[in-house]
Amino acid sequence: MSAPAAALPHALSLKADYKVVKTELLERFKTSANVDSLMRSLARTTDDALRGAWEACELPATLALLAVGGYGRGELAPFSDVDILVLLPEDAPPHIEARIERFIGMAWDLGLELGSSVRTVAQCIEEASNDVTVRTSLLEARCIVGSTALVESFTLRYNETLDPRAFFQAKMLEMRQRHAKFQDSPYSLEPNVKESPGGLRDLQLILWITRAAGFGSSWKELDARGLITDREARELRRNEGFLKALRAHLHVIAGRRQDILLFDLQTAAAESFGLKATQTKRASEQLMRRYYWAAKAVTQLATILVQNIEAQLFPKTSGITRVLSDRFVEKQGMIEIGSDDVFERSPNAILEAFLLFEATPGIKGLSARTLRALYNARDIMNQHWRRDPENRRLFMEIIKQPHGITHAMRLMNQTSVLGRYLLNFRRIVGQMQHDLYHVYTVDQHILMVLRNLRRFAIAEHAHEYPFCSQLIANFERPWVLYVAALFHDIAKGRGGDHSTLGMADARRFCREHGITGDDGELVVWLVQHHLTMSQVAQKQDTSDPEVIKQFAELVGTERRLTALYLLTVADIRGTSPKVWNNWKGKLLEDLYRTTLAVLGGARPDAHSELKQRQEEALALLRLETVPENAHLALWEQLDVGYFLRHDAADIAWQTRVLYRHVRTETAIVRARPSPIGEALQVLVYVKDRSDLFAGICAYFDRNGLSVLDARVSTTRHGYALDNFIVAHTEDDVHYRDIANLVEQQLAARLAVEALLPEPSKGRLSRLSRTFPVTPRVDLRADERGQYYILSVSANDRPGLLYSIARVLAEHRVGVHAARINTLGERVEDVFLLDGRGLSDNRLQIQVETELLRAIAV
């Protein structure tokens, strides 16, 4: 229903006035940065506009308009929702719905993102009893205009039905569910400033609970009641102010409600705080570090407050359960200090608390009193404390415990104890990694790697990575691996090679903590070479005996090899859920087993390896009832490289498929679910031609199949025998279901020598657009001069591999093998190319130039 004619000019005037005032407030905020003044002023301005609309619609005085939610607190972020409640008396006037609809429509016309509800007092109480979200929003209800008597009646009824204990339990459950959505970590690279752990919602939740319980509705009131100290109240106000300001700046920058600190917005947000890029730190990195420290402090202080509130709400369940030592007792599964000054009197007790946390069954964490004492003991954790021999002994005991190491280290990081003990670890707390590979801050990545190593050693997780679990079960003193994990990336962000700089830190730590002999040397060596095994497995031709020989010489011993393998698997898994896959796992395991054989005395002899592979494949063929000697027609056309690049199972499968079709005139395509993980294995056998690899890549690209690995062989009689491992870009694909379709479509595509289609310039992901990788192409002859090695580094995008393959096809450069390596949003691909023709320097330069153009964004 439209507004009366008399109301229209008034509505236009209200809208114009509201827009002018809001614009002025936002411009003033850009220069003053006073977020509290901005949010209060926006709430008042919105109050005025809504009163004007209420009066224009001539709503009766028996109704009331209430602000609820954050708006009810008298605070509004620049583009937040405006939540209102139209409160009706039980005997509401007839036909009032039309006027209310007119009012709500006018409020929307003002430009407000309105969240509205229309209820009686009884309906409000009923909704609140059924929904904790409604109960919460009504907790901060504030009258804007209308009947004060009706509002007082609502407030009285609401308070009578509010159960503080039930409300506390409901909000704790809600918080746990919310935190779980963000992996229980405040360290997301694109955090939600409002909803993430350590964000504004955690602070609001505490004040909702304390308000409901009658303990106070501000930090000052909680301080007066003794729930927090003066220092904690100051810290809470400071961090709350920063988070509010950051959220307001995000809204202003985006011109809309925007609570997620996206990569695209981080630089602009940093500059709004006056941060400038330096030679070593981007402005965005400085902002994010500040954010992470704020979120960490909020998490610590919120934990203290929640426990204190719980103790007051449930006093009968907060007594001492048992005495743990002269300094500590247990209270309901939490370690509590015996006296408030225990850390001042006995600084060794700081690390002792974490050792007890590990060693005592049933302990869930540290009590609020203990956390508060740790928070206030930061000045004690100084150089003298770090050098204390007893503290060094305690720290090593924490690392050597059979259980609870991951939880202890995470708790030590959350309470800032780990960074106070290892000063260089403190430097990487909250440090971002703009490499499109890691999705965690450096400190969280290190703790994730430590967690992965520990899971290898826990029987309940042995099914996840059984080979790793088997190795670590037989590994002497596995705590050496945990020390290496703590230091492997500790030098990130200092400039220079972090592996080399980290070695110095690790060597010093070992010397100071009595880690000597082989153990100390192993820790330092692992930090130095923690990237080596993944580089060899993913970028070098591990079918080349010389590559294995050199790697075995570098490793030297079985213990070093096992340690490096375990650390490498844990490291890759700790970068991003997208980076690890079973194919990479197989590459690493194959490299481990081959190197182990060489370390055990086996010679890296291509001929012996060839014979062994062939014998294993023949044994499998016999099980498949393939006729005796039927394989010979195919195998006589294959070179040594084919047998070294494929394992026995693949050789047997391909032979069984092809032994009847050695000189076929039509393309043979076979597909099956990959034996090594969620992927599809595709075999292509057809007469070779220069554009074949590009044509196959074009098909995969057009059908949403990403190439994980390609093993390309050319037979002596001119056929291509190519093996691909591909994965669909969608996660819910059943590879058995699409295998037949791929076989038919790809065979039909190869039956005709069609022109190669133009490559699609697929869009980069938002992350890649924000942090572009400089495209790099390197083309050089191998040591024997038989092949050329092409290395390509670029941002990943749809169609990239086909773009590369098309350039090679246009210059009639054959692909002998390909190692496709996707690292998050970045690719590091290596191709072994046919060397004929590439010895011409001009052709090399032309190919490299065109490749750079093809992979550029």
From TrEMBL:
**What Gene Ontology biological process does one annotation of this record name?**
regulation of nitrogen utilization
Q: Which residues form the HD domain?
A: 442-564
In the Enzyme Commission scheme, what number(s) does this protein have?
2.7.7.59, 3.1.4.-
- Residue ranges constituting the ACT domain according to the UniProt record: 681-762, 789-857
Q: What is this protein called?
A: Bifunctional uridylyltransferase/uridylyl-removing enzyme
Could you tell me the gene encoding this protein? glnD
Note the SMART domains from the entry. Answer: HDc
Q: Which GO terms describe its molecular function?
A: [protein-PII] uridylyltransferase activity; phosphoric diester hydrolase activity
Organism (species): Trinickia violacea
Per its UniProt entry, which superkingdom is the organism in?
Bacteria
* InterPro entries in the record: ACT-like_dom_sf (IPR045865), ACT_dom (IPR002912), HD/PDEase_dom (IPR003607), HD_domain (IPR006674), NT_sf (IPR043519), PII_UdlTrfase/GS_AdlTrfase (IPR013546), Polymerase_NTP_transf_dom (IPR002934), UTase/UR (IPR010043)
| Cofactor(s) it depends on | Mg(2+)
Keyword Nuclease attached: no
Which Pfam family, any one, appears in the UniProt record?
HD
According to the record, the protein's activity is controlled as follows: Uridylyltransferase (UTase) activity is inhibited by glutamine, while glutamine activates uridylyl-removing (UR) activity.
